[in-house]
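(Protein data)
===
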Amino acid sequence: MTLKKDFDFIGFMRALEKCSGEVFLCTGEKDKLNLQSMLARFVFATLIESPEVIGTATILCEDPADYECLKEYLKED
């Protein structure tokens, strides 16, 4: 799944806190950021300004139930 265009960044960060498993941002360049990591969240925050990166990135949840926590920020491809 990918992030919706113009999603609420702060809301997405709060929703990540509710996730029980690992949540990854996978970029088109084959980078995989664990969004449960504070350092990765800082990198993610800077990537928001790069639509060419965010537009091709996918969100991968280890626990399928976590997609429910994030569903308002995601779109199916």
